[in-house]
Amino acid sequence: MRHGDRTKKLGRTGSHRLALVRNLVSALIQHERIRTTLPKAREAQRTAERLLRLALANTLAARRQAARVVSNRTLVKKLFDDIGPRLAGRAGGYTRLYRLGHRPGDSAEVGLLEFVVRKRPESDGEVRAKGGKRKNDKPDQGRSRLRREGQAPVT
C-alpha cells in the first residue's frame, strides 16, 4: 500500500511544486479566474478551497495561515474582506473548474478555474428604464463565451 500519494507531483520538485501552486492560487484570488492545464488547476483548486474555508472563519489565526500560502498582503485582505463574505452562504464547493479542450501547441488539456460567486463587473453601458437590462445584453453563450473573454495568462 502506497501512503502519502495525495498530491500530484506535476513533474516538479517539492519546492517548485509548492511555488507553482502558491502562484496559481494568488493569481486566482487576484483575477478571480485562471486558465491553466487541468492537473495544475486541480491542485490549485484543492489549495484554494482550503483558503476559502479559512476566509469564512475570518480569525487572526486564519489570516496568518492564509498568509503562509499567499504572501501578498493585499491579496490576503481581498480574500478575507471581499471574496470570503460573497461565499458566506455556501457549505463548500467555492470554486468551479471548466474544461476548455486541448491547447493547440502541445495538446495539453486546459481548464478554467474560477470562483462560483464572481463579482459583477461594473459596466458603463446605459440601463433601460423598463427592463433594467443594458442595451447590448445577450443570452449566455456557454463555454465559447469563456474562451473569448480576457483571462489570466496560461501557465
From TrEMBL:
SUPFAM superfamilies: Prokaryotic ribosomal protein L17 (SSF64263). It comes from the Bacteria. Transmembrane segments: none annotated. InterPro entries: Ribosomal_bL17, Ribosomal_bL17_sf. It holds the Pfam family Ribosomal_L17. The keyword Repeat does not apply. Residues 137-155 have a biased composition (Basic and acidic residues). The keyword Ribosomal protein applies. Keywords: Ribonucleoprotein, Ribosomal protein. Residues 122-155 are annotated as: Disordered. GO terms for cellular component: large ribosomal subunit. GO terms for biological process: translation. One of its GO terms (molecular function) is structural constituent of ribosome. Belongs to the bacterial ribosomal protein bL17 family. PANTHER family: LARGE RIBOSOMAL SUBUNIT PROTEIN BL17M, RIBOSOMAL PROTEIN L17. Part of the 50S ribosomal subunit. Contacts protein L32. This is Large ribosomal subunit protein bL17.
